[in-house]
Amino acid sequence: MGEQPIFSTRAHVFQIDPNTKKNWVPTSKHAVTVSYFFDSTRNVYRIISLDGSKAIINSTITPNMTFTKTSQKFGQWADSRANTVYGLGFSSESHLVKFAEKFAEFKEAARLAKEKSQEKMELTSTPSQGGTVKRNVLSVNKPVIKKESAPGDLQSPLTSESINGTDNDRVTPDTPQHPEARAEPSQNALPFSHSSSSINKHWEAELAALKGNNAKLTAALLESTANVKQWKQQLAAYQEEAERLHKRVTELECVSGQTTGIKSQKTELNRTIEELELALKAKEEELERLKAEVESANEFRSQRDSLIQRLQETEVRNQTLEAQLTDLEQRLESSQLEREAFRKSLRSLLELLDSKIFELNELRDALAKLLEGS
């Protein structure tokens, strides 16, 4: 698209009440962006403001418009095409002053663009008129030469094939012009007959120049025709935009008739919005609490996982210790059995030793008795 934003600000948008033409009707619930746009294809400036996807301002700046500051923070202008008056409420006086300066600047630019367009239209219409005047002057100033040169050589090029003139602009051989000049060839026929070749060359050069001028005029005519087509297309676009704006005005008039119901609905909606905001705030607090609980649950889960891992490691160590304990019990039991067998063998050995000691004691006693008896 050739339309680009060149300045933007924020303001509350109002329109004049179409019924009373006195009261202001707000078209936006809050401050919205108001922008100046420049359309390079049509060379126009527009003020556009959108509330969501809805266009609440679509005003084309014309040289006849005037932006009026009615207070320190409020300004207005009338749009005859939209058949309404727009009002803007700014947050500060500096924003209002800046917007008014831009309005005056773009209004002057629109005036200059309009003047240039008018000058261009005048220039495109001037060449065709100049070509007609030039052909009339040539037809008036050259009758003598045409009579003195060969008619077949000089009169045949000066027709509709070479010069875009009308039947009234062409000079025919039978047309009586400058009778006092017609008497001169009869007296000076001999000198002109000697210089007819040079005259032919001269007028052939003039004819070539006329053909070149004719080509230029034809190109200018084609360019003006193209410009006319472009202007027709722009006019059709303007008409379509005007119809769309009229429909929009009709819709706004229908909407303005329902202002009372809309105000009550707006109050109810504001209450509902406040209730929903409170509920939303409570839900947000609950959500924060749940998030904290989830975080603590995650911490407990990580602690549980670490405890489970430690428990598994403890169970593995316990199983290892149990295996070692079983082995030790088996070894202890075998050692006890060996010890019991050793005790039994020791007892038997002691008994055998006691019996041997007893026998030795008896033998000693017997030897003692023998010694005593001898």
Automatic annotation (TrEMBL):
Organism: Pundamilia nyererei
Keywords, in A-Z order: Coiled coil, Cytoplasm, Synapse
Gene3D superfamilies from the UniProt entry: 1.20.5.1700, Pleckstrin-homology domain (PH domain)/Phosphotyrosine-binding domain (PTB)
Protein name in UniProt: Homer protein homolog 1 isoform X1
GO CC term, one of those recorded: postsynaptic density
Entry's localization field: Cytoplasm; Postsynaptic density
Entry similarity comment: Belongs to the Homer family.
Domain WH1: 1-110
Annotated GO MF terms: G protein-coupled glutamate receptor binding
Region (Disordered): 116-196
Bias type Basic and acidic residues, positions: 167-183
Chief place of localization: cytoplasm
Record InterPro entries: Homer (IPR045027), Homer_EVH1 (IPR044100), PH-like_dom_sf (IPR011993), WH1/EVH1_dom (IPR000697)
CDD domains reported for this sequence: EVH1_Homer_Vesl (cd01206)
A Gene Ontology BP annotation from the UniProt entry: G protein-coupled glutamate receptor signaling pathway
Biased segments, Polar residues type: 156-166, 185-196
Coiled coil: 200-345
